[in-house]
Design brief:
By secondary structure, this protein is α/β, with parallel strands linked by helices. The chain has 28 helices and 14 strands.
Amino acid sequence: MPESDDNLHLEIGYVLFIDIVGYSKLLIEEQKERQNQLTEIVLATAPVREATDEQLVRLPTGDGVALVFYHSAEEPARCALEIAEALQKHPELPVRMGIHSGPVSEVRDVSGRSNIAGAGINIAQRVMDCGDAGHILLSQHVADDLVQYRQWAPRLHDLGDCEVKHGVRLHLVNLYAEPLGNGALPQKFQQAKPKPVRRSVGWMSALVLAVILAAGAAYYFTSHRGATKGAAILEKSIAVLPMVNSTGDPANEYFSDGMSEEFISSLSRLPELKVVGRTSSFQFKGKPDDSKTIGEKLGVYYLLEGSVRKSADRVRIAVALIKSSDGANVWSDTYDRELKDIFAVQSEIAQSVAGALKVALLGATEKNPDAPSNQNVDAYTAYLQGRFYEQLYTAADLRKAIGFYETATRSDPHYALAYAALSKSWWALGDITGEDVAEANRKARAAAERAVAEDPNSAEGHAALGQILVSVDRNEKGAEAEYRRALELAPASAVPKIGLATVIADLGQIDEAVDLLQQAVRLDPLSTNAHFNLARLLTSLGRYDEAVRSARKATQLQPGGAGTWQVLALVEAKRGDGEAALRAATQESDPDWRAYAIALAQQARGDAKAADEALNALIAGHSNDMSFQIATVYAFRSDADKTFEWLEQGYQKQDPGVMSILENPFTRELRSDPRFGAFCKKIGVPYP
């Protein structure tokens, strides 16, 4: 009888997968010669030479080799760079490499020899398969570990998602340090990457996008410093860690992720309990961090963790409530039920956690409020699949999400939550592609209105409608009402707080917007977007030291994210440190935002020639899509005439950035100019 997978001994391995490009096209003699060359190079590297048999497993793979290290992600990374250095002397030996960390286990092959298998090995090969000759590609798991170290962070270059076998998508990072590695975009990404569409966005319009990306994409993790280390941690606080997909089948990942999100949603309804948001808790997916580290970074007393196994029409959920400080078990249980009973199981788990924490559940617990109105399991699983793809936030994934959400609403025509999610996905698809925007917005509006009609108490429905009102209709007052209603219905959620901050900052209510964003940071301490936007609004209030701390936190959380470093450059420029602003600007990954940040930085430095050149370059490249940003640079230069000239251009081109005139730290300096009030009235922004 086969050994039960429950008895397998799993360890976390750091896998370096290597193969020779074009190996199958070589003659037999050439294959043997190249294989021997590669073996000699691999064995000569320091990480391999210095490792004992217990510390390193070597696996021949036919056209290459796989190395499994057990100490840290730095071992395979160092080994890969040493191999790349040696290969410079062997142009006849084209090699690509992939690195991933994940579970591995010792098995016996058909010859009775010890071998290694597991998801760690399989995914490392998939990572490698996405590269070309010379590439050293990393999974996001490995990049998240390495980015915390000064010597590795500058060598990591985000590539985005790559689709591998069975439709699975991996988020990959390119490791290269000239002349080692290959800095070119891999062919698979060139084939899949849609042509970017530059749509000019104002500061707070970008925050609308942040609401959709509250689980965001995609992006790098944090430094070793705890987010709340040294601060008092409330006892009634909890984070739900991503549930482990114990089937090992990537096709079931949507379900384990969905269960985690449902527990976050259910526990967020407990009025006495602080529950950390998805963005922050999912940063720890697949990571080996201990409970104390996680608790300090998230600022929580308890952690809920576990695993989910979905097989056919049955589901098994094992959960444990532990103290983050020492990992002590407070409560645990295992639920083995039919899939049709999933809603009852979720309520039972929420009830048990509430009992263990001695807090009262809000309202009835026999029904999950996020479930379909008709308790249809097919509608629910389609909704979970849609949510899984929506989080990936590419055009292709958003289209998949829309398809699943539409399936959910067909199965249950009264499923308010699915309509709200459908609205967000349609809006996002139009925004990132720039194609058929009017039609995408029309469908987004219809879905949001249907969500509210089906359930007037749906926080997600009101938030979705608020998003349409502010981003499509430019109706800030209407959007404010919708977001305030969403906040009433979901006071423990960071999403409506961010959405409301978006709107009221445009209306000039910056102090309240800052307070809302600070609340959002406490609920979602590892949310890049919350720190990103808080930094900008603090700058508008002249609270520069606080703004710099928030901006730096954003760059630590997402060092390769588009637009992240330009916010730090903006803050430093506004407070008068031109050199610091320029250092930040040059680290900005997005070329458009980098051009803007450099224009601000050079102005702050006081070098008139360099400032003129930077501004002229910004205008030459972006007069059609960054009118508002150009206006802010002129405002920083105290050139009011040019500022209003470019604001008018932005208005004529329907640049949403102009709606941020009251909260932008540069344009708000012109409030005493009579033209300022007139322009506010023209665009529909109330100005006293």
